Amino acid sequence: MSTVFVVTAYGGPEGQQLTERTAPTPRAGEIAIAVRAAGVNPADAKRREGAFGTGGRLPLAMGLEAAGVVTAVGEGTEGFAVGDAVLGAPARGLGAFAEHTVLGASGSVVKPAEVSFPAAATLPVAGTTAYDLVHQLEPAAGQTVLVLGAGGGVGQMALQVAAAHGLTVIGVASDSKRALVEATGATFVPSGPGVADRVREAAPTGVDVLADLVGGEPLRELAPMMTSPAGIVSAADAETAAALGGGGRERSEEALGAITSLVRDGLVDPHVGQTHPLAKAAEAMAAVESGHSRGKVVIIP
Ligand SMILES: NC(=O)c1ccc[n+]([C@@H]2O[C@H](COP(=O)([O-])OP(=O)(O)OC[C@H]3O[C@@H](n4cnc5c(N)ncnc54)[C@H](OP(=O)(O)O)[C@@H]3O)[C@@H](O)[C@H]2O)c1
Asked: What radius of gyration, in Å, describes the C-alpha atoms of the chain?
């Protein structure tokens, strides 16, 4: 048997628990892995709460990004072999917070030896989001990008992706994350009341791309700083971004390979701020649900 962290009732943390299952086997187009690390995302708690619907079958296996070692390859699946270290997104809702799971081969890549398993496990969701937010509007080198929510899992990678692309980078986060933001080479601007004035000082000619990970009022406050409102792109609040003249994150096919290469080449450090054993998956979930975790939270089975 194989341990997995599941939701048995939609709602609060009381509806989640560890359980046992038979290790899942891969179908065509899938690969089975022994999980070595899994990234925790705000979307995990949103799924548990039913924000994406409550029609799915329970128990619902948790976790949307994983890295591990291939134990079996589905029929006709090419590009992977037993023993390969890989990273990707779990198939068929099979979860990442588990000793064993199955990944969709088309959404997986081989893990470069230079990338640790915990770092690799942050790339299928958070890393690709950071990559897409920075690249989807195709900013020219030298333009200014502002990352709102710069100290979180996606935000701190977005800062580094933008720097690697030759952009001038500003990170807005709480004061406790000043060092984390500045370590990437970005200009730090503290969040909270008066943030628009502080951004105006840091970017007197305006912001070309606003990569948003917060949404709502903090996003609205910064919209007047844009050289064009079309430069607003949000992973957190596509509705507000659209109302302001921007839009939501668009998934690109190249993102997973591209962010993996940036990490391999030492240009992006996913900054794993906390790791928790699978037995403490609930604590890992709670750390992300606080809304103020530093960098990425990762579960190690
Ligand atoms: N659409 C997609 O495909 C996609 C993919 C990944 C993530 N997302 C979404 O993107 C958002 C961020 O994800 P994440 O993984 O980076 O979450 P996270 O690690 O929890 O980071 C969120 C960050 O927001 C900051 N924050 C909260 N309130 C703020 C405010 N008023 N001003 C400035 N910063 C503030 C927090 O830092 P402080 O402690 O500094 O406040 C925290 O570091 C979530 O809503 C998530 O669901 C969407």
From this structure: 19
